[in-house]
Amino acid sequence: MEGYSYQTMKASSQVTFPEDDEVGKLVKALRWEDTFFDKEEGLVAVFDFDYEQIASFRKSVALASMLFPPIFILSTLLCAPCLYQQQINWDVYSQHVAITRDGIKFVKDRRKTGCGLSCTDAGKSSKTVPFDKLTDCDITEPAGATCCCIENVLSVVTVDTASSGGGGGGDVGPTHELSLAGLKEPLKFKQLVWAMKRAANAKGPMQSSAPLSFAPPLQSAMDRGFSNEETNAILRDIRSELIELNANFKNMDK
Question: For residue 60, how far is the Cα from the chain centroid?
Fold first, then answer.
């Protein structure tokens, strides 16, 4: 499958970049096959998961885990021995991730769970991490093994914000805003995320569409419905009160 690129999606996403722009250079070199975000407003780029590799790894781990008697008994109650491969496929192929003008958008589409009955379906969920909230985006390369014998083959991209704890979850281990295992191009994802954050920071704070207006006192009074004569009268009263206060202070000094 030839896939999609920034050029083929540009008309629908309404996102354009100058040719010499850092983000533009990165995006124009990308290609993807996932069509889930075709109608997404503000789309910048889509990153494909390596679904086959993710599913294969998780199936191997699940099979090894089920060889342990207590887990096998529990999994039997959840239909796992018969359907575990299909359950993994349902979960793996439901995930999608894209970079939009608003941030990193991760979606898990509606999918079957359990025994595959409609009453056990899991609903669609999505999360967007804004670039201005981003504190870290990094990659953990695969190393070692799971269950002592299954080689870890998936790179994991972790995204943190200040509220996610920055990777420190105390006794329960690291916590992240997003953890994306099995992206085909994790390095390019990381590069684009940081480029988008730098671009957002360069623009400075968001400006209000209606700039603040500072009017002189006389104009403000007139805007509230006072005529010139009424405004002058108010100013005279204020002046008189100030003169009186000044005189009182002088008497106190004596």
Answer: 31
pLDDT of 210 reads 40
pLDDT value of position 51 = 97
Angle at which helix 51-66 crosses helix 80-92, to 10 degrees, equals 150
Q: Where are the alpha helices (DSSP H) in 121-202?
A: 186-202
Please say whether the beta carbons of 195 and 45 come within 8 A: no
How many Å apart are CA 157 and CA 189, to the nearest integer? 9
pLDDT of residue 182: 97
* CA dist., res. 235 & res. 229, Å (int): 10
Distance separating alpha carbons of residues 192 and 24, to the nearest angstrom: 10
Residue 15, SS3 per DSSP: coil
Burial class of residue 175 in the structure, from the number of CB atoms within 10 Å of its CB (0-12 exposed, 13-18 middle, 19+ buried): middle
Beta-bridged to residue 108, according to DSSP, are: 95, 125
Q: How far is it, in rounded angstroms, from Cα 21 to Cα 27?
A: 10
Q: What is the mean pLDDT of residues 199-207?
A: 69
Pick 81 or 56 by higher pLDDT.
56
Q: Rounded to an integer, what distance in angstroms lies between the CA atom of residue 27 and that of residue 23?
A: 6
What DSSP character marks residue 49? B
**What gap in Å lies between CA 185 and CA 190, rounded to an integer?**
9
Question: Please, are residues 65 and 57 in contact by the beta-carbon 8 Å criterion?
Answer: no
* Contact of 15 with 44, CB cutoff 8 Å: yes
How many CB atoms neighbour CB 105 within 10 A? 21
